[in-house]
C-alpha cells in the first residue's frame, strides 16, 4: 500500500514527528488500533499542561464497529461521515469548563487543545494518523455524552493512513494537496510599550 509522505516545508528544521504530522482523511478500514496504542495516546494527553493543574479534558473513546462509534459518527457533518467511518476509532474530546465548586475554568478549552496536541504527536510516533473535526452537531453529541457535564470540543479520527484513491471527491484532491501555512511573520503581533505616567 502506498501512502503520502507530506513533510512540512519549514524554514528551519523541526522534530520529525512534528514535520511529518498532517491530517489525513484516508484511513485503512481494516486496521484496528490496539489497546496499547490507545493507552499511549491517552497517556500523552493526560500529561499535557493545564492551568493550576486542573486537567479539564475528558475523552470518550469509541471503536469502529461498536454502537458507541456509530452514535458519535451519526453526530458528524455529512462530509466528515463519508471518510471518518473508516477510522479505527473516534475520540470525543470535551472539557469541564466549571470546577467542582461551580467556578468558571476560563482556560479549560485551551488546556484541552493542548491535550489533543500531545495526543496527535504521540499518534505520529505510534505510526497512526489523526484528523481533528469541528464539524459535528454539538447538541446531539452532548446528548450522546448525557450526564457528563462537559462541553464537546472536537471529534478526533484515529487510524492507519491509507491510499488517497480510497476517497471520493472532493476528499481525494484535498488529501493530495500541498500543505500550506501562513509565514511566521504574518502571525506575529506588535507590542506597544506603555508610556510611564
UniProtKB/TrEMBL annotation:
Molecular functions (GO terms): oxidoreductase activity
CDD domains: TdsD-like
Highest taxon, organism lineage: Bacteria
Domain Nitroreductase: 19-68, 77-159
Gene3D superfamilies noted in UniProt: NADH Oxidase
Key word Oxidoreductase present: yes
SUPFAM superfamilies, per database record: FMN-dependent nitroreductase-like (SSF55469)
Family of the protein in this entry: Belongs to the nitroreductase family.
Protein name: Nitroreductase
Taxonomic source organism: Lentzea flaviverrucosa
